[in-house]
Specification:
elongated, Alpha-Beta Plaits, homohexamer, disordered N terminus, alpha+beta, 5-stranded antiparallel β-sheet, 5 helices
């Protein structure tokens, strides 16, 4: 992992945690895309695909809704996050062979943000998948949860793929 | 991973999501312990250890507080969780060589619970560590987030260690 | 409508609003069932039934989840309601010829409650149906929202049906 | 009821619920006016008018405040609603012969909204009236809750009256 | 002021903040009474008394409701507070010659609490009085906010009056 | 105290509480600075300074974080406050000889605000200090809580110092 800016902007010189002051910034169009995995194991993954009819997609749909609602609560949960007016939140939940894959996308126009909102959406979506399937098996793990892409703001576009290539 | 109870208690026969009815259950003493990792890389880990004086521990302390407060909000975030009166929430945050390790412990007396509360505490604590250090480097990953131990309730004590041994 | 207890328990002698003091009461098993209607018109009702495959039930499922989560927030929204630990919340959403019918059921063990929780669940579920379909037509109306049945507590079982019969 | 836009903007092509992406929209001045009724019966209506002195208006005032506070929580309660910065919320509560009439008015400058905020304010105001008077009589009903007027945004001004005339 | 227990129970041996573990405690009946003052000055105090008719008491009533609702949110605001099911919250707001006096009373049955709930109710009630009258004059001050009486729990009954006498 | 604007903008002509309509206003850069005191007594003040190592500053840091998070919740707690997007919140907590001094600073760009946000941050920070040290002594008092400086908006810059000078 490359360290591109060697300081913690959330820690004041006095050593105390603080909200970064964004009052000098201009609002800009910002997006972030994050992903999360829930390692449910082969049996639960099959159950999630098998459940048909009306039921089909209800674990996934409940988790998606929880993730979307959580994105709106990011600043309430993460102490130093700024409250932001989101333009859009969207989440895909896909069941794989032995895991559930979550992709969240957040769009907003603001002086900061989108990254923590996308990660919070993905994390709470993953926790909800866990909650919905945990009666069918213990030992489930969540992770990795990570940023995939970010656009807007001073630092412009960042993608995990290009960052990984650069690191090679 | 062993599947020990092949059904989703959060999905009704009709296929809809539901809160499990716990009205027939007796309240019992319950605990859960979960862990989470934040893969911050070697540079940030060193920065987290280096910051001395008053500052020392402020990223960690902010994250701990966020995690404790999140445990109390579990039922607000996870749609099918029951609201519970927690007896205790405690979180340790330890900086390793290239990661941050989080351990959360939740105690309550109730008809259900502790597991999702401990996982939510660990997850939001991890998201807060991420938020506090993200200005110092991109590419940080969260995970795994997982249950380590659970006691109380009908199913009694479960530990990840014993479950892993049994799976060998 | 029969007036069975001619006073407002939420208004103190001084005329000010207050939370009723329930400290002398014993917790008892309580349930409440409420219903709500959303008058969406024939076209939207048909659209709600027609949408097939994965989509089927997503308006309804989103509304159900919103209602369940709202039940847990009743004491936060209704100023004089007591915070209560719910044992179960369940909601059915059924699409009729020109309306959507919502039935909510709440179970808890407490010194008061269930009635406002069931009504709040039904109301927020109805508002969410409205929000999800409003792009397809204006003029939608919500109502009636009403209690259907209540058990537990000092006053015992009450059903709308029997009350209506008695009123004849 | 006329169906003027035959699709659900809150349902993605994949069939999943989503927040509508408003990032391409310009903020505009928006207002919405909604109403709700609480059918309390003749006795309670008389009690509500009779209570004099300091007390006068306290059921109504408590309900108004609950409605105003709920308008600010709309995006927290209705899963696909955008968080919005409201410019004004005002509510009138009037006691009639056998019912309570609620009118809510919301003003904001945003890319979307006002309609759900006004309806949520009216609904929670009605639920609070219900809660405050329910000790004096069972069988109370809430409804209809409905939009009366909406201005701003792409679709411009809409009033229920004109829509009803057009439908004749 | 007498220091009766020379340690901070909210600080663990490691120096980190923690929720005190109350799992070994038995629930008991607990009450707390707190007061707060808002120094509004003579003019505003007169205005608060003069406003007649329906309006009379609306600043006070709005503040009372805000305080009652805040008591229910204590554990959400104060990081190390336990979530508690309150049995009753009541607040009196009295306008004096040049100040507003607030008295809050909280009753609950729990393993801890009532003290912070009563203080939080009084503080938020005072902040609301401030907000409602601030357009009529700057320089308003809040305070003191303080506990007047506490009963229940291991330490039994405490009153400020007796404590002050003992300190003489 | 000088009364500079003899009316309550939060009370409508009808006497009911209302949110002031800010829709005609232009957003402007606004700041507010407030302070609060916690009278903890000499013993607790010494304990707060003495606690060394990692622990040092944890009561203060927990209180700072609680205050920052509360600033973001102002509109949720104070009924007639507008929801605002804060640009920055910062809080200093200083231990004196027998008290704890809190200074909060809030920056935002909006049509109203900053004053109540700074006061709410200071008040909740003070309540948290109280909660964290109350096990070490009863009789602690909070106050005064007061605005020190305000800039932006129609009324421009106000400082307590200049106002006090003018009052002499």
């Amino acid at each position: 992992m490359k360290q591109d800016k060697p300081e913690f902007s959330h820690i004041a010189k006095s050593g105390s945690a603080r909200m970064v002051n964004v009052s000098g910034k201009q609002p800009s169009h910002r997006t972030a895309r994050a992903e999360a995995f829930v390692r449910v194991g082969r049996n639960i993954a099959e159950m999630l695909k098998r459940e048909g009819g009306l039921a089909k997609g209800n674990v996934q749909e409940t988790a998606r809704i929880a993730g979307i609602m959580a994105a709106k609560k990011t600043a309430e949960m993460i102490p130093m996050c700024h409250p932001l007016a989101l333009d859009a939140v969207d989440i895909d939940v896909t069941v794989g062979e032995d895991d559930v894959h979550i992709e969240s996308r957040v769009t907003l126009e603001g002086k900061t943000g989108a990254e923590m909102e996308a990660l919070t959406a993905a994390a709470v979506c993953a926790l909800t998948v866990y909650d919905m399937v945990k009666s069918a098996g213990k030992g489930i793990e969540i992770g990795p949860i990570r940023l995939m892409e970010k656009t807007g703001g001073k630092s412009g576009r960042w993608t995990r793929e290009e960052a990984d290539d650069a690191a090679d």
